[in-house]
Amino acid sequence: MGRAMAGDHENVIDACAVHGAKLVFFDNTYMYPQTADAQTESTPFLPYGAKGRVRATIAEELLTAIDRNRLSAMNCRTPEFYGPGKTQSITNSAIIEPLVQGKTARVFLRDDTLRTLIYTPDASRAMAMLGNTSDAYDQTWHLPCDDDRLTYRGFIHLAAEQLGAQPRYQVLKRWQLVAGLFNSTIRDAAELLPRYAVDNIFVSDKFKARFPDFRATRYREGLASIVRAQTRR
């Protein structure tokens, strides 16, 4: 098994094909349309911006290699992350970390759209389960998330409750983000801005039907775990 990154994906596919190695590929949703339509494994690609086009190219080449029986692989796709430790995500850097530090959280464009977020330990557990399931290969899988989706307003209030803090946040306007007034993690998300203006509905029903005993972490539980880890430092 392996994990491919943009830039070396062709070499990874070729190496797996030559050596008969199975590939478990960790992917995101940058290539999906940035609309409020529900996202499933069959959602067509409609990338917006350079990052989306790169991700679409990688996913398409992997699917083509699978269709041509060059290798046995699976594509494991996730929405936006949140999680403990050094999780690198917009939600962690713009919301969770500032709140833990007693600062003001930042939200892109709107605070009232529904967000689908995946807890990083859930993504790891789900990939391990898929990778060890022989009939899960040669498919795309959406990894499991809590379907009780929150707005960022609700997420911030829940995080602040866990911290015993005030739910202070600022809604950033498009011009502030495009102007690059904030850190590099936030600036790099500029091409994804349209998806923050609408509900983000990432559907993982296929995984949940195949693995009904897998329990996705609820947002309250995930945030409580993150807060405990942060405050122990």
Descriptive report:
This protein has 233 residues and is of the alpha/beta class. It has one domain (9-231): NAD(P)-binding Rossmann-like Domain (Rossmann fold). It has ten helices and nine strands. It has helices spanning 9-19, 50-67, 90-100, 120-131, 152-163, 174-178, 184-187, 193-196, 205-210, 219-231, and strands at 23-27, 73-77, 80-82, 105-108, 114-115, 117-119, 139-142, 150-151, 169-172. The strands form four sheets. It has a three-stranded parallel β-sheet with strand order 1-2-7, with helices on both faces. Helix 2 (50-67) links the parallel strand 1 (23-27) and strand 2. Helix 3 runs parallel beside helix 5 and helix 5 packs across helix 10. It is globular. This is NAD-dependent epimerase/dehydratase family protein. Residues 10-134 form the NAD-dependent epimerase/dehydratase domain.
